[in-house]
Structure formats: C-alpha cells, structure tokens
Design a protein that fits this description.
Number of domains: 1
CATH architecture: 2-Layer Sandwich
Radius of gyration: 15 Å
Oligomer: single chain
CATH topology: Alpha-Beta Plaits
Order of helices and strands: EHEEHHE
Number of strands: 4
Length: 118
C-alpha cells in the first residue's frame, strides 16, 4: 500500500472553519471518495484550531501519483474553506498493517512488507 497525507494548518481559524470542514466532508468529500478506484481508504482528521488532514491509503503507486498530480491542477475545496493551500503533502510507503480486535477485516497484510516487490 502507498500512503498520502495532505494537511492544512488551522492556526488562527475559528469554530466556523471547523464546522464548514465537517459539513464539506459529510456532504461532498466522503461521497466523492467512497468506492473510488485505486483507493483503499481515506480518513479525514482534524484538531480544531490546529490542523485538518486527509489521510489516504492507495492500492498502488500509480493511483496515488495520479491523485497527487491532480492536486496541482484542481485545488481542494479545503483550500477555499481554510484560505490557503496545504502545508504538507507527504507520500509514504505503508510497511505493514496489523488488524486490531475491533475490526478492519481484510486490511491485514496489505502492506509492502508482505509482497515480493514494492
């Protein structure tokens, strides 16, 4: 698996920005990413007044690369809401995933540590 994190600083923003981000995720972003080809999962994270992030697990490098390239040509609506582009766009390799006792069936052993080639 291949990861990506996009992260915006929310320093100096008020609760209205956090509320708009929650609404955007529920109404637009979540439906757009649900079922997306090449994407294993996306997790949205936020610490109000601190940061907002999109955390992605991609099935292959090509799907991730295509999405990262699209960020340069199609700014995220998060950029519009927050008022600036992402502070961090970080790609990484997922070495391994351990499934906890609470679920996520099917994700165990999808990391690159369990394949002959990355």
């Amino acid at each position: 698996m291949f990861g990506l994190t996009t992260r915006w600083s929310l320093a100096g923003t008020g609760s209205e920005v956090s509320d708009r981000l929650r609404e955007y995720v529920g109404d637009e972003s979540h439906p757009r990413f649900t079922g997306r080809a090449g994407l294993i999962e996306k997790i949205w994270t936020m610490q109000p007044g601190e940061f907002f992030a999109g955390n992605y697990l991609w099935a292959n490098e090509q799907a991730r690369s295509e999405f990262v390239a699209s960020l340069a040509t199609t700014p995220s609506k998060v950029t519009e809401i927050v008022g600036h582009g992402p502070d961090i766009i970080e790609v990484f390799e997922v070495i391994a995933v351990a499934e906890g006792g609470e679920g996520m069936a099917g994700i165990t052993e999808l990391g690159t540590a369990f394949r002959a080639s990355a």
